[in-house]
Design a protein that fits this description.
By secondary structure, the chain is of the alpha+beta class. The protein contains one helix and three strands, in the order βββα. A three-stranded antiparallel beta sheet has the order 1-2-3, covered by helices on one side.
């Protein structure tokens, strides 16, 4: 590529909403579709769908729950980027 990149990562938001939890109130739910494309071959070399709910990390009494859609999205993007870095050995 003109930028010297080996891969391009792209994706789309499938869901960015809140659901009601009787104990915790509104809980964010985020789903992303992610693809990694080889700049050399122009082909998709990895793809995946990532889903997360704000109450997945809750331990007890709301401790560990994520309350913001933006924070939940940031966390799953960070985890996805880390996983892709592992896959390509960076």
């Amino acid at each position: 590529s003109g930028l010297g990149a080996s891969y391009l990562i792209t994706g789309s938001v499938l869901e960015f909403s809140e659901t009601s939890n009787q104990y915790l109130g509104d809980i964010p739910q985020v789903s992303l579709n992610v693809r990694m494309i080889s700049c050399e071959s122009k082909k998709t070399v990895w793809s995946g769908v990532v889903n997360a709910r704000g109450d997945q990390g809750e331990m007890v009494f709301g401790i560990g729950a994520v309350r913001s859609k933006e924070e939940l999205a940031r966390r799953i993007i960070d985890k996805t980027v880390d996983k892709i870095a592992e896959l390509i050995g960076k």
